[in-house]
Amino acid sequence: MNLLISNGRLVDQDGERRGDVRVVDGEIAEVGEALTADADDRVLDATGFVVTPGFVDLHVHLREPGREEAETIETGSRAAALGGFTAVVAMPNTDPTQDCVEVIDFVREQGRRAGLCDVLPSGSITVGRAGEQLAPFGELAAAGVRIFTDDGTGVQDPLLMRRAYEYASDLGIVMAQHCEVARLTDGAVMHEGACCSHLGLPGWPSIAEELMVHRDIELVRLTGGRAHLLHLSTAGSVDLVRRAKADGLDVTAEATPHHVSLSDERLESYDAVYKVNPPLRTAADIEAVRAGLADGTIDALATDHAPHVPESKELPLDHAPPGMLGLETALGVAIAHLDMDLVDIVGALSWKPAAIAGVADRHGRPLQAGEPANLCVFDPTEGWEVTPARLASKSRNTPYVGVGLTGRVQHTIYDGELVVLDGEAQR
Amino acid sequence: MTRSLLSISELGVAGVGRILDLADHMAEVNRRPNPKVPALRGKTVCNLFFEDSTRTRLSFETAAKRLSADTMTFAVSQSSLNKGESLRDTIETIGAMGVDAFVIRHGSSGAPWQLGQWTTASVVNAGDGWHAHPTQALLDMYTVRVALNRREGFDGLRVAIVGDVKHSRVARSTSAAFRLLGADVTLVAPRTLLPPVHDEHSTSDLDDVLDDVDVVYLLRLQRERMSEALVPTLREYTNRFGLTPARAARLGKHVLVMHPGPMNRGVEIAVDPAELPGNVITQQVTNGISVRMAVLFDLLGSGSESSLAGGADG
């Protein structure tokens, strides 16, 4: 099928212009003004809409294999497509863990079967994410894994982490750290501060994140390694990364939509939908993370999409699992809550994470003839509210019920195919 | 809308005053030869205890029975509860039997708020996690009001709350209630046993405040705090924060000594409380019945105090 996306605002790394995009056989065939539709072209009127390269999410939990009651690779891929994503990095905390080629291949193959976006399996840093023995980086890298993480927990052992950075350094792979010193967060439910104090909930102090951010920055300095820091949530973390980048260290970072939009006061309701790891922080942290995204200290917006079945979020806060949905609301949160130029927001959702994930040859490409047709078309001004029952995700744990979002995905084109049309998944 | 008692702040100063005034009526009932009235006849109160608490459970049961409510008790220790078992299922099942109020004790902060979403019955928070224990706070206020004959409020009253504030629902609710009624509260604890952020004045020097207080409120120290590096040793805790004989001797005779129970003798209280002139610890327990009657009546009663007049049979 050939597509003609007409009269859109084209936004990519080269800036913004108005024009038409013709897609033929999975590629952008032509970009220009007032292109004429061929007889077999399907025309999408993009007047008032923005046309960008498809988004890339560095951080999603698709739950398959192991917790298919909460999400599958297919349902998660559909949620991704509806969010404008054409590639997602699947976290390795599956059961079994993504620490061997067989599981990696399974996840990638399930992504192919779903056919809604590229599913890029990450590998764990340690076998079984147990923090004791390095996973076979070389074998996994040969199988196409680019990002390694024990996400859900940080690698606590500094010696093991030093070895990981050293061993990984010539394999073209990235160590992605979940920064949390576990001894400081034992039993923690929410951010440690005024709110947890009066709610009587165990606190997760900012320093538990910042200590590991600092440790890993210094390990990168020592080893010449490459680190990506996951879901930064505190003002102190942003400062540390800003200085590391000024020192020229090979460090990148991401932040989630919820850490730029929701504060720890949400927990006043005792609703476990707001329990997430790292926790929602203070208004000052939110401002600092927004500023980090605006000045490029934080490279990417990544959702940490974490589906959980409703029963588990009805448990008392200290027993409920952490995590919230993010794929279908990311753009709407970003536009509503980030005071950044649209091109920079799209960059944090598209070409910058594409480079970190090692897929810059397929995703986040400029809107030019000959490029792969992985595209997103969205209305940047539509105000909307999320309706949990209508989510494509199998789970319902979105924290954005009743929260105004701005900007909504209309169409997603993956490998030249229209997988989302008018906000509806096509497969 | 169904009314509930979840926290002191939700109750507010007017609500606290209303409950304390009602408690006077209940105390009068409790002084009768037959301390039972038909005020809540036909009402069913379910005590739902997910955490062991014989004292609070008995106090609520007694209160409900003296008001002629039917009671049922569902006590299940959390450790034996499968964590996968849904609080919601439990509540909805028992609620379907026809319950007018749930009295809930739970080890998790916030559990009564969650429960409130799944039932149309009134909910009384009988203690949740580290968070709140509003009926304890109310019986504490009532005890001070009676002991000092201060019906008009506690302006100028100086209160020291001593011990493990951080992990104490009693400290949170009782300090909130004292402040609501105008008292000045000082928290006395090592930094490890204070919440990360708090509004009250705090100190780690008990001796520095003892000469200037009207109420000393001792908190129970859980022994497992030793293993969490929060306190070096029990002996040091007692030396720094316990009511020792030397400190007891310094207390003015007017100073009330309070404790929510159960006491760790030799730890937070290293004297025989019976020898303290201002000891009101037993009165706290006794007043607990009247105050919990007041709470249940306030939530479930007809609104008319005349139903407290007649005696009930049985």
Quick structural gist:
Chain A is of the alpha/beta class and about 425 residues long.
Secondary-structure blueprint:
The complex is a heterodimer of chains A (about 425) and B (about 325).
Chain A: E1 2-12, E2 15-24, E3 27-32, E4 41-45, E5 50-53, E6 55-60, H1 73-82, E7 85-90, H2 101-114, E8 118-121, H3 137-142, E9 147-148, H4 158-168, E10 174-177, E11 190-191, H5 194-199, E12 203-204, H6 206-223, E13 227-229, H7 235-246, E14 251-255, H8 283-294, E15 300-301, H9 310-313, H10 330-337, H11 342-349, H12 351-356, E16 375-384, E17 405-414, E18 417-421, E19 424-425
Helix pairs in contact in A: 1-2, 4-6, 6-7, 7-8
Chain B: H1 8-30, E1 44-49, H2 54-66, E2 70-75, H3 87-95, E3 101-106, H4 111-116, E4 122-128, H5 134-148, E5 158-162, H6 169-180, E6 184-188, E7 201-203, H7 206-210, E8 215-218, H8 234-241, H9 245-250, E9 256-258, H10 281-300
Parallel strand pairs in B: 1-2, 1-3, 3-4, 5-6, 5-8, 6-7, 8-9
Helix pairs in contact in B: 1-5, 1-6, 1-10, 2-10, 5-6, 5-10
Report on the structure:
Chain A is of the alpha/beta class and 427 residues long. Chain A has two domains: 2-51 and 370-425, Urease, subunit C, domain 1; 54-356, TIM Barrel, CATH 3.20.20. Chain A has twelve helices and 19 strands. In chain A, helix 6 runs parallel beside helix 7 (235-246). The radius of gyration of chain A is 20 Å and the shape is globular. Helices cover 37% and strands 14% of the residues of chain B. Chain B has two domains: 8-133 and 285-308, 3-Layer(aba) Sandwich (Rossmann fold); 135-284, Rossmann fold (3-Layer(aba) Sandwich), CATH 3.40.50.1370. Chain B starts with 7 loop residues before the first helix and ends in a 14-residue tail after the last helix. Chain B is an alpha/beta fold and 314 residues long. The chains are: A alpha/beta (427), B alpha/beta (314). Chain A binds chain B through residues 189, 192-194, 196-203, 205, 269-271, 311, 314-319, and chain B through 83-84, 86-88, 106-111, 113-114, 128-132, 169, 172, 195-198.
